[in-house]
Write a structure and sequence with these properties.
The chain is an alpha+beta fold. It has 2 helices and 6 strands; from the N terminus they run E-H-E-E-E-E-H-E.
Length: 104
Amino acid sequence: MIGAKKSEAPDGRAQGVEKSTANSDVGGNPKRAQFHLTGGVQHVGAGLTVRFSYRNGQLDVEWAPRPPTKRELSRVVERYRGHRHAFVVELGRRLGGTVACVEA
């Protein structure tokens, strides 16, 4: 299971990389623990893009050209979640199981 958590920098901006814990040995298969997947660059609005990747049992999110401010995040959050959902669905398909992303 992948648990996504929101984190903020001291100035109130979202962090550039979202790191989450996950069961890196999905189904007890060692090959799955070494599985890597990187998605394409996705436009979310406000001039921002995100790229999701999964490596070593961890879901990472890279924002460009910078992480969104709180105000920007409120404008782009639905697109962000849609792209994240599509990535998690593809991850589950490639791993051959169910993957869940939980927002805190």
